[in-house]
Design goal:
By secondary structure, the protein is mainly β. About 0% of the residues lie in helices and about 60% in strands.
């Protein structure tokens, strides 16, 4: 039979003033744990806290704590008193040689029952967070289910335990040693989402019709973690998300999966569902012209500016409008001369255009900029 951690106590009473030490009495098994909590927020260490009632005698009581075959970090074990009738004092803690155990000595002015919390770091127990998203056929709303997968290889059976795995996120259940369990912890319906296509000119071909293979544009769903969007009570934990869409016939179609990033309250989360050929983006550099040449005393050009004219054509073959983000790389020093659409500067060398293309239509984006201080 496998041995698991157990707690025992022994009482030490002062027999005679002339005797040199406390006398140790018969060991008594402690009552079962009153409450157990496991904190899974930390990816590397799992903190377990348990509450028990200790029956202390007047004088000094020894509390033996053993954890044979349980993956505990010995130096992390702590004992604290939660409830007591009269103040008690933890005198010392000792570790018997060649044993997975320790002994606390607690002094009490009278016989009493005290409630204590024992906490320690437990190894080989972890959690994974996963999500399942169901998107409506119009791709405007998302129903999101959250699951936590517990894997317990610590050597400890955890019965009726509160598992804390995020800010204000917890559930109570039991997980036996060597058991893996999947538990649903959240369900949020009708989250407003936005479908977005991403054309990144730094990565994708500028002229897809010339590419050897058919070119798809990354597409994703995005939504905000806010109360206005049925969320916003706590951060969304990082985890794998699988997305499905209603097929309009009572069934679902698998769209894809992505790794959801940790998303604080108020921030936006984006879930990539693969590539789409419903939107085609073609980009061309129409011209490059040297301007503002600077010469040295030998009439040699030592510095100049470069004016560049760009054109981006966006075609939407969908039955619905398409929101496309166009990412454009820029030089280190530049000035925008003209642009047919507004843009945002994301970094010193990156700008973005958000373009909404009507259904079955196309738009043309024209812009020009000057690259400054170019050396020949």
């Amino acid at each position: 039979m496998k041995l698991t951690r157990n707690l025992v106590i022994s009482s030490a009473l002062l027999l005679l003033l002339s005797q040199p030490a406390w006398a140790r009495l018969k060991l008594v098994t402690l009552p079962d744990r009153q409450a157990t909590q496991v904190q899974l927020e930390n990816d590397n260490d799992t903190l377990l806290s348990e509450e028990r009632e200790l029956n202390l005698q007047a004088g000094v009581t020894q509390v033996d704590f053993a954890w044979q075959n349980v993956q505990i970090q010995p130096q992390s074990i702590r004992l604290s008193v939660l409830e007591q009738q009269e103040p008690v004092q933890l005198l010392n803690v000792s570790y018997p040689p060649s044993a997975q155990a320790l002994v606390w000595e607690i002094a009490s002015p009278k016989a009493q029952t005290v409630r204590v919390r024992i906490s320690y770091l437990l190894q080989n127990i972890d959690r994974l967070v996963t999500y399942q998203g169901n998107v409506n056929k119009a791709e405007t709303e998302l129903n999101l289910l959250g699951f936590v997968v517990l894997r317990n290889f610590s050597g400890e059976d955890l019965s009726e335990t509160q598992f804390q795995f995020g800010q204000d996120q917890s559930f109570t259940g039991s997980v036996r040693d060597k058991e893996t369990k999947r538990v649903q912890f959240s369900k949020v319906d009708k989250i407003l989402i936005q479908k977005r296509f991403i054309f990144d000119a730094r990565i994708l071909p500028w002229e897809p019709e010339l590419a050897a293979e058919s070119v798809g544009i990354p597409v994703l769903y995005e939504f905000k973690n806010t109360p206005e969007n049925a969320l916003g009570l706590h951060p969304l934990l990082a985890g794998k998300a699988r997305l499905f869409i209603d097929d309009g016939k009572g069934g679902q179609i698998f769209l894809g999966e992505d790794q959801a990033a940790f998303t604080p309250v108020g921030e936006k989360i984006r879930l990539n569902i693969g590539n789409s050929r419903d939107v085609v983006v073609t980009q061309r550099k129409l011209s490059e012209t040297r301007v503002s040449e600077r010469r040295n005393n030998k009439n040699q050009v030592v510095l100049y500016d470069m004016e560049t004219v760009m054109q981006v054509t966006l075609e939407n073959f969908r039955e619905q409008p398409a929101l496309v983000t166009v990412k454009e790389s820029m030089p280190d020093e530049w000035t925008m001369q003209s642009s047919s659409l507004p843009f945002e500067k994301q970094q010193h060398d990156l700008i973005e255009f958000d373009v909404t293309i009507p259904a079955k239509d196309k738009l043309v984006l024209d812009y020009s900029y000057v690259q400054q201080n170019v050396r020949p």
